[in-house]
C-alpha cells in the first residue's frame, strides 16, 4: 500500500495550489497545509476524505476523531464541525483528497449490495484505508492529467469507489443515507429545513412531524446521527454565519441579530465558548492573518 500512497501523494501535490484546489474530476478536491492549523469551525457536507500525508483532528458534538493516511474519514450528513491539522510541515505538508458524496449515485448501487438492518449510528466516522480504495483513487488521480478522459472514465471510478464504501465498515450508514425512506434521510431533510431557516426560532414539533416521528424519537435519532441536539446544531450554524459577518466588518450586535439571537450578551458568551475569544477580538485576529472561516 505504501507504493500506492506515495504515487497518489506525488500526483496530488502536482495539482495542489493552496489550501483547497478543484481538480479536473467533478466533485474531487485536493487539500494541502504546510503547517499545523488553528481549530476552525466549518460545515462538512457529505464527503469521503483520504489523507495522503499528515493528520487532522475533527470535533463533532462530543466526538473527537483523528484521521490520517491509515484511516479515512466519511460523513453522510451536513455536519457543523471544528477541525484542525495536527501533523504538517513545509517539508511534509498535510495532503488530502476529498470526494463529495452524491446520494443519488449511491442509491443507484443499492441493488448491488446486500441490505442490512437500519441502525441508529453516527453519520460520520473513520475506518481503515484499504489497497482496493487506494487503487481506485489512483485511477481518479491519473485523470487530473487527462481531462479529455474524465467524461468517460471518472463516473466509472467514482461508482467503484462508492461501491467499495457501501461494502465497507460504514456501509450501513451510507445505505441509509441513500435510501429516501430511511430515518437518516428524514434527519437529512430536517437538517435542510434547519439550514434554510437557522435565523428563525426552532420548531421541534414541526420538524418531527415532517420527519414522521414523535418529538422524542426525532430528538434521539437526530443526536445519534449528528452527535448534536437540533438546538445545538442550529446554534453552531448561527455562530458560524455570525463569524463570517464579523470578518466582513459587521459589528457584534448586528451580526447577533442577523443570525437570530435576541440577546447580544448571550451571543457573545456562546461565541467565545465556541471560538475561544469574544466576537470582536476573534474577528480582528482573523482579519489580521488574512484567514476566512474554513
From TrEMBL:
SUPFAM superfamilies: Homeodomain-like. InterPro entries: Homeodomain-like_sf, HTH_AraC, Tscrpt_reg_HTH_AraC_N. One of its GO terms (molecular function) is sequence-specific DNA binding. Coiled coil: none annotated. Residues 188-285 form the HTH araC/xylS-type domain. Signal peptide: none annotated. Keywords: Transcription, Transcription regulation. It comes from the Bacteria. PANTHER family: ARAC-FAMILY TRANSCRIPTIONAL REGULATOR (PTHR43436), TRANSCRIPTIONAL REGULATORY PROTEIN (PTHR43436:SF1). This is AraC family transcriptional regulator. It comes from Hansschlegelia zhihuaiae.
Amino acid at each position: 500500500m505504501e507504493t500506492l500512497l506515495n504515487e497518489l501523494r506525488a500526483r496530488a501535490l502536482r495539482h495542489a495550489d493552496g489550501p483547497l484546489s478543484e481538480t479536473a474530476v467533478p466533485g474531487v478536491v485536493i487539500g494541502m497545509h504546510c503547517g499545523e492549523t488553528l481549530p476552525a469551525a466549518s460545515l462538512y457536507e457529505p464527503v469521503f476524505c483520504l489523507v495522503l500525508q499528515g493528520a487532522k483532528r475533527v470535533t463533532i458534538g462530543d466526538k473527537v476523531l483523528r484521521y490520517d493516511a491509515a484511516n479515512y474519514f466519511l460523513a453522510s450528513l451536513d455536519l457543523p464541525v471544528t477541525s484542525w491539522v495536527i501533523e504538517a510541515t513545509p517539508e511534509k505538508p498535510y495532503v488530502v483528497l476529498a470526494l463529495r458524496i452524491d446520494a443519488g449515485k449511491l442509491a443507484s448501487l443499492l441493488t448491488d449490495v446486500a441490505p442490512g438492518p437500519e441502525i441508529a449510528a453516527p453519520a460520520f466516522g473513520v475506518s481503515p484505508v484499504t489497497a482496493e480504495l487506494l487503487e481506485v483513487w489512483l485511477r481518479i488521480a491519473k485523470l487530473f492529467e487527462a481531462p479529455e478522459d474524465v467524461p468517460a472514465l471518472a463516473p466509472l471510478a467514482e461508482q467503484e469507489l462508492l461501491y467499495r464504501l457501501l461494502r465497507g465498515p460504514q456501509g450501513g450508514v451510507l445505505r441509509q443515507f441513500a435510501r429516501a425512506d430511511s430515518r437518516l434521510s428524514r434527519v437529512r431533510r430536517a437538517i435542510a429545513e434547519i439550514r434554510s431557516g437557522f435565523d428563525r426560532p426552532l420548531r421541534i414539533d414541526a420538524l418531527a412531524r415532517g420527519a414522521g416521528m414523535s418529538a422524542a424519537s426525532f430528538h434521539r435519532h437526530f443526536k445519534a446521527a449528528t452527535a448534536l441536539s437540533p438546538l445545538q446544531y442550529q446554534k453552531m450554524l448561527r455562530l458560524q454565519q455570525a463569524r463570517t459577518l464579523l470578518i466582513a466588518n459587521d459589528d457584534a450586535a448586528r451580526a447577533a441579530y442577523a443570525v437570530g439571537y435576541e440577546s447580544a450578551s448571550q451571543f457573545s458568551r456562546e461565541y467565545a465558548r465556541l471560538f475561544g475569544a469574544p466576537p470582536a477580538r476573534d474577528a480582528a485576529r482573523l482579519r489580521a492573518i488574512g484567514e476566512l472561516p474554513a
